[in-house]
Amino acid sequence: AKVREFLENHWREEFQIDKITKVASLSPSHLARVFEKHTGMTLYGYYQKIRVNQLKEALRNKNLSIAEAFSSCGFTYPGNFARFFKKQVGMTPSQYRKIMD
After folding, report:
1. pLDDT value at residue 79
2. Rounded distance, CA 69 to CA 25, Å?
3. What's the pLDDT tens digit per position in 41-81?
4. Which uninterrupted H or E stretch holds 3?
5. What is the predicted pLDDT for the residue at 33?
6. Who's near 54: CB < 8 A, 6+ residues apart?
7. How far apart are alpha carbons 81 and 43 in whole angstroms?
8. Which DSSP string do the residues of 11-56 spell out, in sequence order?
9. Would you state the pLDDT for residue 43?
10. Is the pLDDT higher at 81 or at 27?
11. C-alpha distances in Å from residue 98, one per residue of 19, 59, 63, 89
12. Virtual CA dihedral for 75, 76, 80, 84, nearest 10 degrees?
């Protein structure tokens, strides 16, 4: 629970396993096993899921352009993440925005 809370509160920061292991007071390998056992996801997969969900929220805000939505989520170069978003969600950010309209 501490690790999930940490990831949810620090999703804008770069993923750093050493910071996360300090929160959990576990070794990286043990934390990875325990986290996946309880969530069914890897630590990094959970972190990426949070980031995608945050971007989905930002894309729902019609006052922001798509670039501004990415920027508000801390993405300075949205190209790579837009491809990742499409892989995770099954559509581009602009398609997602149109569907949510």
Report:
1. 78
2. 35
3. 999 999 999 999 999 999 999 999 998 998 888 887 667 88
4. helix 2-9
5. 96
6. 11, 73
7. 18
8. TTSPP-HHHHHHHHTS-HHHHHHHHHHHHSS-HHHHHHHHHHHHHH
9. 96
10. 27
11. 38, 10, 14, 14
12. 10
Write out the two tokens for 23: 């929160």
Q: Identify the residue whose tokens are 């993405």.
A: 75
Query: What end-to-end distance do the CA atoms of the chain give, in Å?
Result: 34
- Note the pLDDT of residue 77: 67
The helix-helix angle for 28-39 and 2-9 (nearest 10°) equals 90
Q: Which two tokens stand for residue 64?
A: 């922001």
Residue type, 52: V
Q: Is 69 exposed, middle or buried (0-12, 13-18, 19+ CB in 10 A)?
A: buried
Structure tokens, 34:
């325990």
Q: How many residues does the chain have?
A: 101
Task: State the Cα–Cα distance between residues 29 and 16, nearest whole angstrom.
Answer: 14
Percentages helix, strand, coil for the chain (3-state, rounded to 5) are 70, 0, 30
